[in-house]
Amino acid sequence: MGKLLNKDFICTQEWEKEELDRVLDLAFRMKQDRFGEKFLNILARKQFFMFFYNPSVRTRQSFEAAATELGAHAQFLEPKAMRLKTAQTAGETVEDAAQVMDRYARGLGIRILEDKVSAYGEGDDLLREYAKWAEMPVISMAHDKFHPCQGMADAMGWIEWLAPKGKLATGSLAKAFDPEALKGKKLLLTWGQGALCRSWCSVQEAILIGSRYGMDVTIAHPKGYSLDPEVLAATKMNCAANQRRFEVTNDPAAGYEGAHVVYSRNWMSPEAYQGGELKKADEIKKAMTITGWTCDAAKMALSDNGIYTHPMPIDRGSEVSDEVASGPRSAIYDVAENRLHAQKAVMAATMAGYLD
Predict the structure, then answer these.
(1) pTM to 2 decimals?
(2) I want to staple 151 with a disulfide (CB 3.0 to 4.6 A). Which of 190, 209, 283, 343 is the partner?
(3) Distance (Å) of CA 236 to CA 54, 185, 211
(4) d(Cα 209, Cα 160) in Å, to the nearest integer?
(5) Residue 32 CB: number of other CB atoms within 10 A?
(6) How do residues 249-272 score in pLDDT, each as one tens digit?
(7) What does DSSP say about strands 73-77 and 138-143: parallel, antiparallel, or unpaired?
(8) Do β-strands 273-274 and 277-278 pair in parallel, antiparallel, or remain unpaired?
């Protein structure tokens, strides 16, 4: 059994770099030998509980596929179908629910963000409360602060494109994990106009893992759209440890200069939660009045032959133009596919201690 057995996966920043390396290496190998016999029964007859407060497309599909390909069974659970204690209703406490589920399953995934929390940080608190009482690993399937599985899929896709044997004219991707592939490359995370009032989880995970792997990080956003100060401080610390640059700009175009990875995505403002609820309509209305923040071909031309990345779903025409999202330097479908492979590796490592 490996040392990652039963280790929670709530944020990539909480794992050692060497642990991330080993899981990413496994993800690459699993992608190359997707149905290889040595991977098919790692979690044979084990249960993985998927606790969805929020709906999904890629998350449910990729986790169910990952569980099946490892020999496990994934159960889809919704809070509305369970008698759970809330601030307004009586029911089962997290302590009781977690310890009972621990007797049934080998891993627990939780997805809770945006309008399913009444204040930023509540989702993170809930995952950590389940982790406190459950011996099995708790895996974030996206919550209000972090999205570690998306971060791993992002890093995997960027490495495929930017490794020395990355995306070529033939359309081939790098086939093996290269821990040095992102070092010295520039990641631009830029706010995008959009009508979705998106949480911070994916974008915060992107800058954390990019900075862990030695990337320069530039964050561009309109005034009033800063991210979590603690996450920004951790990103800045990662960059300093790797002797890389960290900068923030309020200019919609300046950050594209020299970028190798462009991540254009809408996110909510720090004032999104007011009086115990998400003011989604107000956030969307405000965001749609801010112009000039769409990622388009003219901005991408300022980059260093940069790739476009996004966790999806994409608000085409607002966050990014179709020309870029569907263009020859778009990594969106590779990254989406990598959710499956990265999650297989995380599940194998944390639920079975498998790293071979």
Answers:
(1) 0.96
(2) 209
(3) 31, 16, 8
(4) 15
(5) 11
(6) 999 999 999 999 999 999 999 999
(7) unpaired
(8) antiparallel
